[in-house]
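Posting this for the archive.
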Amino acid sequence: MQRGMLLAIIFGMFQGGLPLLGALIGAGFRQYVEAVDHWIAFGLLAAVGGRMIWEALRDTKRNDATDLSSIGMIIVMAVATSIDAFVVGVGFGLEKPMVEVMLNVVVIGVCTFVVSMIGVWLGRHNAAVPERTAGVVAGIVLIALGCKTLLEHLGIICW
């Protein structure tokens, strides 16, 4: 199997699997925090999204390349980049039915696979990828999801 394909599969599995694990944990605690679960979900999503935006806009110049020639390093990187997905999964588990969580997990995993394959292709062709823009957009999406969850629960929006 080609190294880029393997990288995309591993990243997709962890980006989809850790939210599922988080959702299962969140669902287990749902009965204890049901009165405030929407606030917890909003807080987790807003915190992760805000941190993503902050890190994307932080003025740090990084030129350190990570050697992804070993499967072990790919797995370490996949886990490290999926920790926030675990936290998002906890929020999902507190607020959403498992059928919806499973749909989200599949979409997250497939999208991560596709974007990873695009990243491998761009890397092979030395194409510049705007990391700041990607980080800001991802953060905004998470914050928007948190706001949507909160507004739905408060009955302000119904979609």
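Residues 3-153 form one domain. The mean pLDDT is 84.
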